[in-house]
Amino acid sequence: MLARKSIIPEEFALPALASRATRKPVFRDRVNKARFIAKSGACNLAHKNIREQGRFLQDVFTTLVDLKWRFTIVIFTMTFLCSWLLFAMIWWLVAFGHGDLDQNRAPGVEQCVTNVKSFTSAFLFSIEVQVTIGFGGRMITEQCPIAITVLIMQNIAGLIINAVMLGCIFMKTAQSHRRAETLIFSRQACIAVRNSRLCFMIRVGDLRKSMIINAAVRLQVVRKTTTPEGEVIPIHQIDIQSESAVASNSIFLLAPLIICHVIDKDSPLYDLSAMELQCSDLEVIVILEGVVETTGITTQARTSYVTEEIQWGHRFVSIVTEEEGVYSVDYSKFGNTVKVPTPLCSARELDEKPSILIQTMQKSELSHQNSLRKRNSMRRNNSMRKSNSMQRNNLSLAVPKVQFFTPEGGQNVAVT
User: Fold this and answer.
1) How far apart are CA 303 and CA 285, in angstroms?
2) Does the residue 380 lie in any domain?
3) What is the DSSP letter of 331?
4) Could you give the CA distance from residue 158 to residue 72 in angstroms, rounded to a whole number?
5) Do both 167 and 236 map to the same domain?
6) Could you tell me if 198 and 332 lie in one domain?
7) What is the pLDDT along the chain (416 residues), one digit of tens a residue?
8) What is the pTM assigned to this prediction?
9) Exposure winner among 27, 48, 203, 219, fewest CB in 10 A?
């Protein structure tokens, strides 16, 4: 018995098609990893196994400022309560040692502190001394030099506690990163051709009218590298220059600006094409520093861009317009981008073969002209269809004339 032949010819079978199909180069998928800097600017770094914890106590003020608000409030309250209770105990011991608490003392003996008869009254007197309320019901006398010494000690201790605690609260309220909340970055970064060179671009802006003085932008590429000696550097920071940093050291952040980095031979992005960029494991960190105009405090805003957040062949749309003699900024389009013709090759290949850019521009121009021709032809066809339909409607609405003939050859009568 003969084997049944397949209905599909052998040259069109799946194995044959698979063998003849062109194989594209397969790139290794990028492993999802934690980013070093979050989009909000927070550093994604955990400190573990710190043995010398006492170093934090050597800088108590900075430790208090870095604490969370709930811990700061608890420490603020407990510091004052403990100091009041401590000196209340001292005043109670002074009164007890002098015999002021004795109900059977001689009537001519004067008290060290008047009207201190219990620990509660000593606690009230401690609060009055430290916060300088002075209700007038309790006061010290010149009979006890030790009471005067305790009064001086409590005043000095109260001034120190007030200075530290109020300074801590003020510094937490006026921290520099609070001003950085109104410094914004675009959610996406772009790579496109500008002035015939491939450029990495981001957009920064300031939402407040008070400016940032001496604002400077720094760009860094962070990635894992291996040296020729075999040493693995997990966080290798490479500084890259921007156009603003080449001309001067600061930018005038009056309106949102596009920070541009020219991908040249000194750039770590020089050998990366569009496909290789998506498969690479790097992170671009952007740091904006400046002095707050109103407070004079130095502030810093940070963000980062991983490869999934870098759009190849896009550029930012313009958001600054002139309306009635005033420049207006539309922040609703702050992160909007538009697609532009950009070669998919690396900057090195573009420098070695400048004709790639010319060919890309020509193809883009041809495609643009073809799209315009298609649109015009579609518009013409639609207009012709509309005109034909209108003519048909007019013909259908027209009433034909009907002629009646008399049987004896009389005159014709036309009726419409």
Assistant:
1) 6
2) no
3) G
4) 18
5) no
6) yes
7) 444 444 444 444 444 444 444 444 444 445 556 788 888 777 777 777 777 666 766 777 788 888 888 998 999 999 999 999 999 999 999 888 877 777 766 666 677 888 888 899 899 999 998 888 877 778 888 878 888 899 999 999 999 999 988 888 888 887 767 777 888 899 999 999 988 889 999 999 988 888 888 888 889 998 888 888 888 888 888 888 887 655 555 788 888 999 999 998 888 898 888 898 888 888 899 999 888 888 788 888 899 999 889 999 999 999 988 888 888 888 889 989 999 888 888 888 888 888 877 777 767 666 656 666 677 777 777 777 777 676 666 656 555 554 545 555 555 555 45
8) 0.65
9) 48
Q: Is residue 388 part of a domain?
A: no
Q: Is 88 helix (H, G, I), strand (E, B) or coil?
A: helix
Range of the structural domain that residue 346 is part of: 179-353
Domain end call among 353, 376, 392: 353
Judge residue 318's burial from the number of C-beta atoms within 10 Å of its C-beta, 0-12 exposed, 13-18 middle, 19 or more buried: exposed
Which backbone phi and psi does 402 adopt, to 5 degrees? Answer: -120, 130
d(CA 243, CA 85): 62
For the domain that residue 317 is a member of, what is the CATH number? 2.60.40.1400
Shared domain for 227 and 83, answered yes or no, is no
Alpha-helical regions (H) of 131-256:
145-173, 176-179, 243-247
CATH number at residue 117: 1.10.287.70
Let me know if residue 376 belongs to a domain. no
Q: Residue 205 and residue 349: Cα distance in Å, rounded?
A: 33
Pull the structure tokens for residue 103.
């109900």
Long-range contacts of 95-102 (CB under 8 A, 24+ apart): 95/122, 98/143, 98/144
Return the bridge partners of 315, or none: 338
Buried (b) or exposed (e) across 346-373, using 16+ Cβ within 10 A? bbbebeeeeeebeebeeeeeeeeeeeee
> Based on the structure, what is the number of domains in the chain?
2
Residues 155 and 186 in one domain: no
Residue 368 lies in a domain: no
The reply to whether 167 and 191 lie within a common domain is no
CA–CA separation, 300 and 298 (whole Å): 7
Q: Which residues pair with 312 in a beta bridge?
A: 191
Say if residue 244 is in the same domain as residue 270. yes
